[in-house]
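CO-FOLDING WORKSHEET

Operator: S.A.
Ligand of interest: pyridoxal-5'-phosphate
Run index: 484
Mode: holo prediction, single chain
Checklist:
[x] sequence pasted
[x] SMILES validated
[ ] output reviewed
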Amino acid sequence: MSSVSDHASNNLLSKIAISDQHGENSPYFDGWKAYDSNPYHPLKNPDGVIQMGLAENQLSFDSIEEWIKKNPTASICTTEGVGQFRDIAIFQDYHGLPQFRNAIASFMGRVRGNRVSFDPDRVVMAGGATGANELIIFCLANPGDAFLVPSPYYPAFNRDLSWRTGVRLIPVHCHSSNDFKITKEALEEAYENAIQSGINVKGVILANPSNPLGSNLEMQDLKDLVSFINQRQIHLVCDEIYSATVFNKPDFVSVAEIIQDMEFVNRDLIHIVYSLSKDMGLPGFRVGIVYSYNDVVVSCGRKMSSFGLVSSQTQLFLAKLLSDHAFIDKFLAESAKRLGARHQIFTDGLEEIGIKCLKSNAGLFFWMDLRSLLKDSSFEAEMVLWRVIINDVKLNVSPGSSFHCSEPGWFRVCFANMDEETVQVALKRIRKFVKGGKEIEIPKKAKRWQKSLRLSFSSRLLDEGTLMSPHSPIPHSPLVRART
Ligand SMILES: Cc1ncc(COP(=O)(O)O)c(C=O)c1O
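OUTPUT RECEIVED:
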């Protein structure tokens, strides 16, 4: 088979096809490869890799399954629903079914405690938040323009926002010293540096709640951000895909609420990206939304959504599901409760063996601090540790470098894509690992273990060679499935 470089040399393919700007050649996606080639199964493959690099919300499927059983008309594939088949099977244009747009707008309001309402006529469909993020960038920027992105940030932003649009991403580095909060100073510095280098900065884009931090912006921080973009008349794109995963205080505040209360904000600059992949746990449905306050963006975005329409069958189902307000309110409350409980089991389990995590209150993951386990404070050392975790401990967690974190030693751990038993197996593996191969009892006083944790790691880390897996190194794969 011909290689990418063969094609590059004879100009057979487009620049996009031969570039590696898809961002998938990072350890984040390599971890996927390792999992795919040796997936854990409690009976069939108990020594396989446990997938903890997947931000999926599988904790509340049972509620949706129950709803489906009680609502057979929500599908065209049932005796009760087949009467709608012809209407749904025919061509549907890019406006989407009216009942679907109404249901989405009302759902977005409910997720925000009905403190703000959304206009169904501003709901633009896309193929997941992945498609929605690319679509909004296509509407706002030209190739070579830039967006500022507070880091650490979601690794696939490089693929979704840059690869095909040609738009650059400029990280705004946030630090552990203030729990990775976005500061005005950091934003200003990144903005000024870019302008001085002749780069046209079109806006700021961020996920709120954050992936990977699992925390949401406080109201004042969001107001400051809106003031920042408003003063410079640049755009603000808030990816609010995790808005209903908030399980502890502070409550989620949407940029929609902020601009409702703030005077003198140019609303043409404000855009929300949303999806049902996380809050409802339906990433396979590929439902993404751009909600823009800018009329031209809505109009252009709607035409662009022809490239990523949500199937009418899915729209029909969701229109019915999301319009069942009693069910949705109960679902959202229960889902957040389950996420909070799972988060606690995991982080408590880690704390008992001396592993700390950034305080978090949202998302499907937490940000684990393994800085004290690095041989030195470098990204090379982070990679060494990550390879041990994936090859020897057999857990696919994602290293901070793939999130463009400026400090080595942080790892993102997903906790909502597995069952309770797998959580216990994962914790058991970590416990065994930190004790250098021996199974350990959970100590009553956690603090005691912090010292031994460091010792058992550092003695192993002395010789990097022993840490590398004796098995094959993980190959880079541009073909690896692009996931969350
Ligand atoms: C911040 C963020 N945006 C977008 C996406 C993509 O979501 P979707 O499955 O809806 O395309 C993800 C998925 O992990 C995400 O974390």
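REVIEW:
The first strand starts at residue 50 and ends at 51.
The CA atoms of residues 292 and 359 lie 32 Å apart.
[x] output reviewed
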